[in-house]
Design goal:
The complex is a heterodimer of chains A (283) and B (205). Chain A is of the alpha+beta class and 283 residues long. Chain A has helices at 3-15, 21-27, 35-38, 40-64, 71-77, 84-87, 93-108, 118-121, 138-141, 203-212, 247-253, 268-282; strands at 155-160, 165-173, 176-182, 185-190, 227-234, 239-246, 260-261. In chain A, a hairpin with a 2-residue loop joins strand 2 (165-173) and strand 3 (176-182). Chain A is built from twelve helices and seven strands. In chain A, helix 5 runs antiparallel to helix 7. Chain A has one domain (82-282). Chain B is an all-alpha fold and 205 residues long. Chain B has two domains: 5-105, Rna Polymerase Sigma Factor, Chain: A, CATH 1.10.1740.10; 113-201, Orthogonal Bundle (Arc Repressor Mutant, subunit A), CATH 1.10.10.10. Chain B contains ten helices and no strands. Chain B has helices at 5-11, 21-29, 34-55, 58-75, 84-105, 113-121, 137-150, 153-163, 169-176, 180-201. Chain B is globular and about 50 Å long. Chain B starts with a helix and ends with a helix. The chains are: A alpha+beta (283), B mainly alpha (205). Chains A and B meet through helix 1 and helix 2 of A and helix 5, helix 6, helix 7 and helix 8 of B.
Chain lengths: 283, 205
Amino acid sequence: MSEKKTGQAERLFEAMSGVDPELLARSEKKKKVIPFQKYAKAMKLMAACLALIVVGGTCWATLRNGGRQTAAEFSANADSVRKDGVSKAGDNSNKGDFAEEAQATSETNTANHYVVSENEASKDEADAYPKEVAADSEAFYGDDGQSSTKNVESSTVTAEIPKDYLLKISESVDGRGVDSAFYGKVELKGKNLLPSRKETKSYATVIYSWLDGLELMPAEDQTFEDYVSVQLIDKDGNVAKEIRVCDRYLQKTGLEGTFEIVDENYDYDELRRAVDAAAQAEE
Amino acid sequence: MRRSRRDDVCDSTWEDGILKDTEILDLYFDRNEQAIAETQNKYGTYCFSIAYHILHDQEDSDECVNDTWMRAWNSIPPNRPDYLNIFLGTITRNLSFDRYKKKKAAKRGSGDLGVCLDELEECIPDTGSSTEDAVEAAELQRMINEFLKTLPEKDCNVFLRRYWYSEEYAEIAERYGMNLNSVKTTLFRTRGKLKAYLEKQGITV
């Protein structure tokens, strides 16, 4: 390169000394590197192998337990496992709708699909509550695969809500709507949570796969005295997904109706504004 | 004593055994020579790093750093910089570059700075003739600042680490958790943008 160009480059280099100090200070920040990430590339293959093992184990356990109830069987038993509030409504005309809903839901569920135990359904209706029969139900229900009323120690799931999402939990108590919105991490405390649910990275995955498996979601024209609605709202205020579940179920399982925030690094006012904006967008 | 906006931020970065920037500046204003010792304690490594990236020589870098303390002593007061580290780093950078030019003229020394300068040649606009006066240094600085503010934060940071701090690609990649190719690509594109920006301004460097 010519000397003139070199001189010009030097001049440019010298002129850089006048850069805004704020820009320079900003450049000082280092990206936090989680030690695990340093090995991320090398761990990809291991993660793939683990995934295969998990899937294989799940399939094996499913086959071993002799499968699960079909959606048709479940819908036939749906009435007997409704909550007190629902069954008391005594509206048999809704049973078919609910059964269809349950069947439709069942058919869309994936491997972690939960159904109601027939044995449990035959018990006292007032005390009946859905039992989770998962691929690894043996851990909870013993070798015979029968449902039982084993008490499981209260367990905790801590998970992170996907980035740029809000998890909005709406509770209706005695007809009054109460909204809670969460961002970051939440801690879900309750009983009968399967070990495989613990320490999952995605709260949305936890709650959706868990709630999806209940198959007790009411049809849209159903109303319940009490319900819990869970929404995942993206950064544009769009509702990505919504599930409504009868709160009484949560009470029955011992799951607390409110969700404790683990990560408090959030701006609640900003969160509220975002939730309100999402609600307005829905209207 | 006037406290700048930055003092509040500097106060929050105080660590055990190291004075806050505000306290160091107070020593300068009190003409307490302990200011230099405290500055050395807090920013010695930082300034040495800047000098070494330019000069790639231990002895020369040490001299530039020592000269930096003297320059700081002479300029504070009346200056009370908002960012003491940047203020000192700028002094070190200027001193180091002056020394680099002298060594280059004497055909001595080596290092990565030559590569940096070669890269910066790509930013020289093609506009202007040899008869036109080069833009004033202050004006060029202003334009560079304006340009940097148009960049995304990441691109700006990478550009500054390369052409202000004279860091190597690997260091920049490690700092920001990027891979080497990303750093090179980012710099290549940013240089192109700078050239286009200077050409659009119609200036001669």
